[in-house]
């Protein structure tokens, strides 16, 4: 496992154990946060900010994958499917989280190393390369909106 994946797995252990000291070591004090989903599912925010200390929701990722400094984790619980995209600095500190609830997510890599959409040099443009797609769990009995996260 990459060092970034190890950091994210340690983070989930600290969250579920409510280990505040470890969370302070792993998270940047001014964590950049983006949430996509119903407000009632902001369990992570309520736990990390101390707004609520006793939440039945457990974050137990079923899949974790790294794409450079971005680590994607996916899980489900209490009728919700979730995906987190964490940004981990080389020093092992998490600086950003993008949180998605009850949606499917495709992660795509965009950049100069992407193949061109045209062989004509003066009309070249890059396009997305899918590198990861969330799996709908057997608990998902309905269609979910899909999002694309470009990294």
Automatic annotation (TrEMBL):
Supply the Gene3D superfamilies for this chain: 3.10.450.50
**Database matches in Pfam families:** WI12 (PF07107)
What domain of life does the UniProt record list for this protein's source?
Eukaryota
Query: By what name is this protein known?
Result: Wound-induced protein 1
Supply the source organism for this entry. Musa troglodytarum
């Amino acid at each position: 496992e990459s060092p970034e994946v190890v950091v994210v797995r340690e983070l989930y252990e600290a969250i579920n154990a409510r280990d505040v000291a470890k969370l302070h070591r792993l998270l940047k004090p001014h964590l950049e946060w983006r949430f996509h989903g119903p407000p009632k599912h902001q369990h992570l925010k309520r736990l990390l900010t101390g707004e609520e200390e006793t939440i039945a929701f457990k974050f137990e990722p079923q899949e974790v994958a790294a794409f450079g400094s971005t680590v994607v984790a996916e899980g489900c619980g209490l009728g919700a499917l979730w995906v987190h995209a964490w940004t981990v600095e080389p020093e092992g500190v998490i600086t950003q989280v993008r949180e998605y609830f009850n949606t499917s997510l495709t992660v795509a890599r965009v950049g100069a190393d992407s193949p061109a959409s045209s062989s004509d040099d003066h009309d070249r443009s890059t396009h997305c390369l899918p590198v990861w797609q969330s799996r709908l769990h057997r608990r998902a009995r309905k269609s979910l909106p899909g999002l694309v996260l470009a990294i």
